[in-house]
Amino acid sequence: MLRRYIIGLLMVVLLLITTTPSSAASSSYAVIDAETGRLLAGSNENVPLPIASLTKMWTALVAIENLDLKTPVTISQRAATSEGSSIYLTAGEETTLETLLYGLLLRSGNDAAAAIAEAAGGSLEGFSKMMNDTALFYGLENTHFENPSGLHNEKHLASAYDTAQMLRIAMKNEKFEKIASTKYFKGTTGNGTLWENKHKLVRNNKFAIAGKTGYTKVAGRTLATYFEKDGKKVIVVTINEGNDWVVHSNFADYVFKHYTNEVIAKEGTYSVQSDINIKLTEPQHLLLTKKEVKKVKHILQLPRSKTKDSIGRWSFYIDDQPVKDAIVDVQWK
């Protein structure tokens, strides 16, 4: 149902917006459950495309994972003269990684991206390798970075699904979440003005928690948004979508209306064999439609022999596709 609704929605959108320039890339989108990463709907979601400044979500996460927020940074000439959007850094200026991250995620400063890359990776090239290594570690198979800002490069690509996963992974980091969800920040670099988050939904939609905007002539408009309402968490990513504010809001509204956060396994101890109990330490939830509730399958993987501190795996499937795993304590009777 969600796929049919979205296809209809996008057809209407295409009639309302102006024709995309011929230089722009193909379009794609992905809607995922922010808790499990399960794809709820998508189109061309696994096709690598230019993502423009959505790149900076990964730039921020990689920097946060490798440096303290209070790390001092001296702005180089190369960073200060970066092409594209800017927070107006000057060569020789001293600031902190934290301030640069606010300039990166709220104002999309390419100069901030370059300064962060040099601080964390020694150079833009060295940091791009760190970004790719981290993407490989997290299993992003359709992603490759050539720079920390998202400026166009034929090899700098990511799929909509991978990009949604980037935001999902990054939002598990409390430092990233705090910065990305900030609406306004008093900048202490460049001209020192109040920085407003460019993401209009984060500023004005109470269910839009965080996200990132992007644009280049080749990529078109790109947008990533993390929504949360009544315990339901969903991420929407669109690539080359001219009416992205409306599309994102409609995607989220549909999920909030038609999906429920179902308990698929309760916390507690279960007897699964005459000599084995398993203990689940917390309830397991999945974002499901009414039809999907009946399709959930349970598969247990248990150790073959008795060992101390034995653990097993409780896997949940929908339409024979794995969607979530839980670790269980195995207790021998």
UniProtKB/TrEMBL annotation:
- Residue spans making up a coiled coil are none
Provide this UniProt record's keywords sorted from A to Z. Answer: Carboxypeptidase, Cell shape, Cell wall biogenesis/degradation, Hydrolase, Peptidoglycan synthesis, Protease, Signal
Q: Which Pfam families match?
A: Peptidase_S11
Any idea which residues are catalytic in this one?
53, 56, 108
Where does the secretion signal sit in this chain?
A: 1-24
Listed GO biological process terms: cell wall organization; peptidoglycan biosynthetic process; proteolysis; regulation of cell shape
Peptidase S11 D-alanyl-D-alanine carboxypeptidase A N-terminal domain location is 19-241
Which InterPro entries does this chain map to?
Answer: Beta-lactam/transpept-like, Peptidase_S11, Peptidase_S11_N
Molecular function via GO? serine-type D-Ala-D-Ala carboxypeptidase activity
Query: What residues bind substrate, as annotated?
Result: 212
Q: Which family does it belong to?
A: Belongs to the peptidase S11 family.
Under which name does UniProt file this protein? D-alanyl-D-alanine carboxypeptidase
Species name: Viridibacillus arenosi FSL R5-213
